[in-house]
Amino acid sequence: MCDVTYINKFIKLTSDEGHMNQFKLNQIEQSRYIRLDSAAMKALNIEPHTDTIPTLHGNSVASILTLLDKCRTAQGHRLIAQWVRQPLKDLSLIKERHDIVELLVNNNELRSTLSDDYLKRIPDLQQLAKKLARKKLTLQDCYKIYLCISHLPKLLEQLLLEKNVTALNTMIIEPLKELIEDMDKFQQLVEQTIDLDAAEKGDFMVNPEFADDLKTLKDAMDELEETIQKQLSKAANDLCMEAGKMIKLECNQQLGYYFRITLKEEKILRNKKHYTILDSNKAGVRFRNNKLNELNDDFLDARNKYLERQKDVIIEIVEIAAGYSETVRSIGGVLACLDVLTAFSSAAVSANKVYVRPKMVPSEEGELNLIQVRHPCLEMQQGVDYIANDIIFKRDQCHFYIITGPNMGGKSTYIRSVGVTALMAHIGSFVPCDEATISLLDCILARVGADDSQLKGLSTFMMEMIETAAILKTATCNSLVIIDELGRGTSTYEGCGIAWSIAEHLARDIKSYCLFATHFHEITKLTEEISAVKNQHVTALVEDDKLTLLYKVMPGICDQSFGLHVAKMANFPSDVIEFAKRKQAELEDYQGVAFEGSDNPQKKQKVIQEGEVLISQFLTKCKALDSSLSDTDLESQILSLKEDILSHKNPYIKALLATY
What we know:
One of its GO terms (biological process) is maintenance of DNA repeat elements. This protein is of the alpha/beta class. The chain is 50% helix and 13% strand. Among the domains are: 359-573, P-loop containing nucleotide triphosphate hydrolases (Rossmann fold), CATH 3.40.50.300; 601-658, no CATH class. α4 (74-85) crosses α14 (325-350) and α20 packs antiparallel against α21 (631-646).
């Protein structure tokens, strides 16, 4: 259905005569770009969400696009939005972008000159190119293009100082140099046909030298303007005001010429019948005297005749200028690229801690190493002192993290920071790390959050399963997969079973880079079966029943979720908290039994595992007993087996027996 919709839009677009032969359908080469599904776009906050509050903790940086978009041109804003949706898989092109960003990060003068002096002067050349192609251009539009092109040689001079940077030379300097040369005839056309002196004043007219009758009309207008200028001194003397300061002579296309004074001086005009007030606003009072009214009418009449006569000339100018539409569009594309790369460099240096250039390596290297990675949006929020963490992935050695820890402990932020950093590296931006080595990815996939889709009639769990199924079908060994709290939309045991099986499939069969945050602590045993799986946990301290979150990711397991502590932090009623504690004690399974060494998660797991093996052996031996024996003999042999199991002095078994 999507394909049919886009074809229909294309037909409507090309049915317009003005769009004839201006558009064509091209197939996007998917092999050039990383696959980024809608779930990942939302989970990583790539674009601003229209349904969320625009500010967070007094800071508006709530998306990656908002953070990076420091562009100064309209075409730059559009291109950066496209780039964040289409991360690259072309290693050489990524490195070229990084080369230019590195140059601009290191060269403060060039970066600020481009951003503040040149790029902000660039109009929307791509929109002007469309008007050119449709022959809907005005003289003002031609003048905008003319001014833009006239400034480009100076911009080129600045860039040529760094022409030894091959990427800058290839992507920006050489294409821009050729395009400026192609626009030489257009510049001559504008200089010969447009009155540039009038254009500087905001009056866009054909050059009077272009035709004799235009010259006659222009001479008449000039004479009238000279006479009008003399009226200023006369009115100033009449009103006892200083000409040019207290009273001014101004002109615009709608009203023509008029006098203007401030609102405070308005009382001077009272009871002076030969002055006519046009209007009053914050800028002051606009008015004319009788003589200026007559002269202005004559001036507007001559001007209207001039404008009417020049219409045929404008048609000829636009007809010729239309041939430059593709060149203007190409210049817009090159400048948009320069604008985006300048924006990347500005974002890198304006961060709380300057971003670094990631080392991009081929997919075959199988590395994803981020040292002291930060979340770029979160660290920009006011009052946030961000705790950075590491991630070290090497294919077949360690490519899967199971992350446990308390709610609000930073698990989701940690896994998102990795996804965002990988994305930024692949679009050509620097990254918020101390050091980064990233193998080329083919997908960034995510299953984060718990939203339903009422319009589609899908429950939270169904949405979770659909997105996870898409991950399992799409992911490869070169994919980055981010999964947060999978399986919580159904019963505990079903959810744990589903989460375990998916984690094992990703780790054992697909072998993708994966960050798997969960509260199902049973899944941490997967490290015993698959060597490439490692346990990580976010740290917290509990003192005097108070929870202190440290936000530091460390190796090992956190066997508690601290849910009751978080509920207490959220100001739950104390009686609800106490009741929850009692229910927790009732519902906890045998794994919650306390014994010597159970405060150490690693030691506890080992002791429980040994105990379970002994219990399993005990049950097997019991089943093997001769059922024909008398009850006394059976009880004697079972007691003997019990003594045997107790002889191992397993603390877990001892604690279990003490509870019964």
